[in-house]
Please model this.
Amino acid sequence: MPYLDIYLAQLIDPFRIGLLVALVLTAASTAQTLNRWIPIALGVVFVAVLIPFSIGASSTVDTTTAVLVGLVSNVTIAAVLVGAKAAYSRLT
Model:
């Protein structure tokens, strides 16, 4: 299953995780003036498109496949980060 391999590789990509951490923190700080979910949704799509087109997908993976699987992995990472932020906010 090549999709699972791509998904797992994207879940541990430090560049992707760093971009999504910055996205969640920025969305949290601008939540009073903007809706929190619109910037997160647009950022998830942006990161999913940015990485395969700027860094490049491997020769065995189509760019469209990398973007679509990237959307799923970004949503997974963002959900974990938003949940961690909510848990931290609740504890403090």
